[in-house]
Structures are given as C-alpha cells and as structure tokens.
Amino acid sequence: MDMRSNNHQQQQQQVLDGSDIVELVENEKVFDKFVEQKFQQLDQDEDGKLSVTELQPAVADIGAALGLPAQGTSPDSDHIYSEVLNEFTHGSEEKVSKTEFKEVLSDILLGMAAGLKRDPIVILRMDGEDLSEFIHSPGYEAEIVSIYFSALSGCEEASLRDCIVKALHSLSVDHGMPPSNDPWVMSNIVEPIVDSCLDGENKREESVSQERFLEAFKRVVERVTQRLNEQPVIVAHSENTFDGSGIRRLLSNKFEFDKALNVALEIIPKDRHGKVSKEYLRAVLDTVAPSATLPPLGAVSQMDDMITEALKMVNGDDGKMVKEEEFKKTMAEILGSIMLQLEGKPISVSSNSVVHEPLTSATFLPPPPAEADEPSN
Questions:
Q1: 47 by DSSP, 3-state: which?
Q2: Is 189 exposed, middle or buried (0-12, 13-18, 19+ CB in 10 A)?
Q3: Distance, CA of 57 to CA of 298 (rounded, Å)
C-alpha cells in the first residue's frame, strides 16, 4: 500500500498497551473517584456493600474487557468468570466492602495492564477506505485470481454464493476487510450483501468460470466497501509470539516459580500423605501459564500439541501419586521441554474480533486520561 494508505491506517487505529490503566490506578485521587463511581453503580440496595448478585455486572464487564465470550456460552470462559468472582468474594457468600472492592479491582486492572503491555491490542476502525484502495490497486485482480485457484479449487462443484463467501474469508484486516469468520460479520455484512448481489438463480449457479467469479466477487466487495463507509466496524487486532522467553524467566527465578506453583497447588486435592496425582499436571500448568507467558490450554492448538508431547515424556497421564516436591520437579521438566521447543520453533498467533460496544462505553477499562481526570474549576 502507498504512503497515503499507511497514513490512513495510522489515523484509524488506537493501541491499547495498558499505560492508561496503570496511570489510572497509580493516581490515587482519580482511582478513588473511579472506584466510587463503579461501586455506586453496582450497590443497588445502597447498603454500602456488594452482594454476589450485585457483583455480577462487574464480573461481566471484566470478562468483556478480557475478550471473553458472554457468560453461559463456553464452559472454559465460565470457569474464568467464576475465578474473577472468587477474587472479590474469596469463595464466600458474604458481601464485599468498598475497600475490598478497590483492592481486588486494582489487582485485576494491573493484571490486565501487564498483559496489554506484553501483548498490545490494536483497535482498528474499518471504514471501507483501505478495502476500496485494495480493489482499485494494480495487484487486486492477480491476488483474487490466486485465491480463485488455490482456496477455491473446488468451485466447479460449489455454488457461486459459496465460492464468494469462501473467498471473502481469504481477505484480512490488512486488505481492509473485517474478519469474515466472526459470526457478527457473517450475519450482518457478508451474508446479506452476498444475497443482495446475487438473485436466486445465480446463488445456485455451479461450474463457476474465473471470469464469472471475478465479476460477481468484485460487485460484492464494492458493496462491502459501501457498507463499511456508511457504518464503520471496530476490530480488535492482536499478535502474540510464544518463544519460550517467559518460561526461561520464570524458571530462572526460583522464588517466583515456587510461588506460582504453591498458589496452583493450593486448590489441588492431596491424599492423607500429602501426595498429588500426576493427572493434575495439566490443571497446574494452566494455572501457572500466565506467569510463564503461555496461553490458556485450549486457546492455541499448536501449543496444546506441544504440551501433550511434553506430558508424554514424563508419563504425565499415568495418574501416579507423587510427593509434592517430585510433582514440582516434574512440572519444571515439562516447562523446560516446552521452552526448548518454543526457542527452536516459536509459535505466532494473530486474532481479530469485532468490538460491538463503543470504546467509551462504561466498562471496567478506564476512560482516556482526559476524561478520567477532569480539571477542577
């Protein structure tokens, strides 16, 4: 893309690196005001304390800020929501005071800030201009022809509609296209526009020629451009590279490593001799993962495969009962194995998700500094 396109991309993006969150929490006067506002919003019965029910909106907001799907849609994410609630309540049904609320909220926000500093999120405003430039660029037709022959090699048996939808999946945010694999984008942009551009007979058309495909595809993409121009879409883009450096830092600091393992082992069942089953190695590894700069289990398939191989090396699934010190030694071996594999072959992951709420909405991410700390008259 040319210089004008690069300037436009810079104008249409915002980088979330956690600095605003740290600035908020470290400014005691501003943070007290922030906590007071959130506490009053949650304290429905105005008794000066928050019940488990009153805390639920806060938990939902924090989950959304972490990028989790809505509660009730995934067992894995529901587990994280429960853990967030437990941070406030410590597993009891007792109400939470404003002081306790402030302390936990501070810890959670600083944890978010640390994550964003390590893996910043870029907020992109997709308004159709970059997609329009791509359509009218000299390389457009060659790239779409390549998509036609590679990704759509089976189009002779598929309908024109299916071919176009599949091709749209090959366009990325770099082209100016919101992620087509996002359910909201598919149901609100891709499917309505494809259906409006093709009549009933054309939708079912098979044995699609290259010329016919290129003509129909360009018409669809031009309509997508128009739709984005009228109603821009906000996309959160992140890129993470797991290279083993986080594991190396953790293993080189015995105090931090023991601390992370001890916290994880607190909730793991033990027999009357204090022994632990090796079947809990995965659970402990998942708890330690943030300290080792690793993704949660199930989040990255390549990483899951690597972990499975590391567990096989130590017979991690044999269910054998071992002393706590041996369990810790085995965990260090697993992490060491994963570290060496990542150092030799790092895993890079990028993700794009549509932000459905305005960036200034009332969530537990702080507003921009200018809004958070208004000058007094």
A1: coil
A2: buried
A3: 26
What's the residue count for the chain? 377
Cα–Cα distances in Å, from 214 out to 135, 217, 281?
12, 5, 52
Catalogue the long-range contacts made by 165-170 (C-beta closer than 8 Å, 24 or more residues apart).
165/190, 165/191, 165/194, 167/213, 167/217, 168/194, 168/220, 168/221, 168/224
CB 377 within 8 A of CB 256: no
How many helices (H) and strands (E) in the chain? 19, 8
Asked if 50 contacts 155 with a C-beta cutoff of 8 angstroms, the reply is no
What is the residue whose two structure tokens read 């005001």?
A: 33
Residues sharing a CB contact under 8 Å with residue 269, sequence separation 6 or more, in sequence order: 276, 277, 280
Query: What pLDDT digit, counting tens, does each position of 182-220 carry?
Result: 888 999 999 999 999 887 656 565 666 788 888 989 999
Return the H-helix or E-strand segment holding 8. helix 3-11
Q: Give residue-wise pLDDT tens across range 216-244.
A: 899 999 999 999 999 998 888 777 889 99
The CA dihedral of 372, 373, 375, 377, to the nearest 10 degrees, is 80
What is the Cβ-side half-sphere exposure of residue 97, based on CA atoms within 13 angstroms?
A: 3
* DSSP helix, strand, coil percent of the chain (3-state; round to 5): 60, 10, 30
Q: What is the largest CA-CA distance in the chain?
A: 74
